[in-house]
From TrEMBL:
Pfam families: Glycos_transf_1 (PF00534), Glycos_transf_2 (PF00535)
Key words, A-Z: Transferase
Segments forming domain Glycosyl transferase family: 226-397
CDD domains per the UniProt record, alphabetical: Glyco_tranf_GTA_type, GT4_PimA-like
Signal peptide: none
Protein name as annotated: Glycosyl transferases group 1
Gene3D superfamilies for this protein: Glycogen Phosphorylase B, Spore Coat Polysaccharide Biosynthesis Protein SpsA, Chain A
Organism of origin: Lentzea xinjiangensis
Listed InterPro entries: Glyco_trans_1, Glyco_trans_2-like, Glycosyltransf_2, Nucleotide-diphossugar_trans
Amino acid sequence: MTVLWGVSFDATAMSGVVVEFIKIAKSFAGQGYRVHLDLGYDIKADKGRFFQPYRHERTPDWITLDRVDGVEHIAGYDQDFVAATLESVRRNEVPDTDRITSELADAIVRTWEDRGVTLVMVENGTLPENVAYTKALYQAISTYGATHGLGRYVLWRDHDLMWQSEPDKYGSFPYPATPPMVNSPHIHYFALHEEARRRTLEWMPHLRALDVLPNTFTPPGRAGRPDFREHFGLPEDVKIIARLTRIIPQKRIDRDLHLLARLPGTWLFVAGDTEENPEETRRLRAVAAELRVPVVFGGVLEPCESTGDGFSVRDLLAHADLVSFLTSYDYESYGNPIGEAIAAGVPYIASRYALYDTVYAGFEAPVLDILADDLPTEEFARQVLDLMTNAERRAEVVAHNQRLGMHNRAAADELVSTLFPPPMGEDVRLSVVLPVYNEAANIDEVLQSLHGQDGIDPGMYEIVLVDNNSTDDTVARARRFAERSKVALHVVGEREQGVACARRTGMEFAARRSRNRKDPGERFYLVSADADCRVDRRWLAELFAAMEEDKAAIGVCDYYYNAEHFVGRPRLWEAIQRTLRCRAVTFSLFGGFPDGKGFAVEREAYEDVGGIEICYQLQNGRFVNHLSDDWDFGIKVRGSGYDITYAPRSRVEINPRRVNHAIDEVITGRAYGNDGIIVMRDIRPEAPPKTEDLTEAEALQAWEFSIKDFSPKNTILPVLLTPSLLDDDAVLAFFGEDLASRLGTRIAEIKEEMRVVDFVPIHSYKTPSYRLYFEFRDEIFARLRAAVGEDIGYPPPLPECFDDVPEDRFAEFVKYYCEDRESGEAHNYFGNGGVF
């Protein structure tokens, strides 16, 4: 059983911080986590609950209220100590907390060990009032993470940015007496919005793992109780303004009372603890009496998520006409009550506090400018009354805010699920990674082909769909498919555009989760699929069988086009088939290299070589990610000494749009760029595809670019990376002993010559393989003709620049031609990327 440990620095049973913890924790509970929550009574001194036992705290029944064992026995650790250290911090003096910090850290680790904690959520631990506890948490996280080999198992979130809203409490910027945020391999930090992220990095510019995770909007899970009004003495015919808040001066509930004085027939319901600050409660009652406005102090309600018998915030929202958030200017950075109102479909009003426009940009509500008017004006009251009584206007505002809120919630859910993925099924042996970008027209058919796999149990594999910023309903369609699928389907996002980035994100997501399987010693496979291709019904079973039998690091599929899509185009079809026939021969000899359309890699080998690397190139003055991540990755694996196997019965059908909608670029070998820049070309059916056949000249051009791209990669590169292949009987038979011997000698010479040159991966294999192609091209083609057929023909003409090169200097000028990456001529000659 996996266990989530939550710790709140708020020390309040049901604050906005705790409510937001519950929302995130609920998704983990749905994944099978047991959820424990430390409310922070033994952390924050000003709430007066230090070491108090839990008694009547209202949290959902799936949460176990817990705390660190034995903290009450740490000598010198109490409320006075916390207050004294905070006073030192105010004076920019670093307090001496080393002993207590160390003992606290030990106690935290012992508690986590006892509970079996696997995931930790820290709420509001940044620049806290309890410096010793924050330092102890950092120490405990490091110790526990290293002991158990955990990755980023901590979600650390700062809600209030207390160093912004109460700056005097923490000294002066950059707060030298407070514990700095740690660049830990175990912690992923979250800010609530971009402005908070910017200001955090202004303070801690070295911080790396910092993302934005806004408050979430969870729609009501049940209807409000009809007896709510009767229970609290609220007449049926009155309007209700709800205020969900702590009853303290900073919350400025007096503003709501003054607003009520301008709204006859309206009542205020305050859901908050009247005992937290009894003096403020008495003052508010006196103001209400003086203004003669009706107010109900309803006490602390159960949280929205509660399924208990008591009245909850959801019950209040079901009866409220409006939710108010008229708070102080410099106190709040994010108002949880606004989020609750949006989720419940209730309009809200707010004051324009410091970060309101940053946090709620785009949402609609009457906003009181409290820098201009401390109390509600007549005009503000008119706007509020119109929102409560104009049914059409109210419906428009609610619909607009809910649409925007649901979008924010989906983004937050996706971020959390990506960084803290759900546990993997214990029987899963393969994760199929499917990058998608606006594939609504194809996704149902693609997923159906992945789902309907023969020869393999649905519980043995899963699908990881990586959304690469789709703007259509690709993801919605995928989620609907998942609801009726026997195969688990996970959706994660990748913000950086590019199939390579998306493929890497999916692979990393699957690799992290695979370590928690039933038998982590079993070989586990990461599988790449393509959203515009179809896989055969035994694609996965045959690929899995080949990987299991050969124990190779990578398994490569067979690819084909459907002949029905090329009826009436015999020249084009013949050029395609010749390429695929050559591929079948060389892949059976050398294993080949992975193609994103379909390959598998064993997880340990994937991690050992550092996973998929994204290379960048300059195109028109901007950095772009290099397309051939699959080939580059295969080269890394092969170059690291791992084996590649070919699974010819694991077959993938290539979508003809790759040819039909870019035929002019395909036949010239420039479908994916030129001059050495290889980037993804979005080949979409924006116009009717070309269906006429190639001319004889075009067919020859297409074949020559195809075979020029194919030959260095598939006949020379494998032995360049693994010269021992030249000792294999089948490879010897293909090359012949004499050619194999000379090729091996020349490979050794070129490697020795180039060994001091620091090539980046995009070029480290191309330059030597291009050189070897030119030097051995006639003999290579002779071997291809013998193995594949006479129609393979002879090498395409050399570049014109070799016309004047003396024969005895040919190899010398080949070297400079292939190494001249400034001009990119060699890349253009060789097709600069796959053609068919």
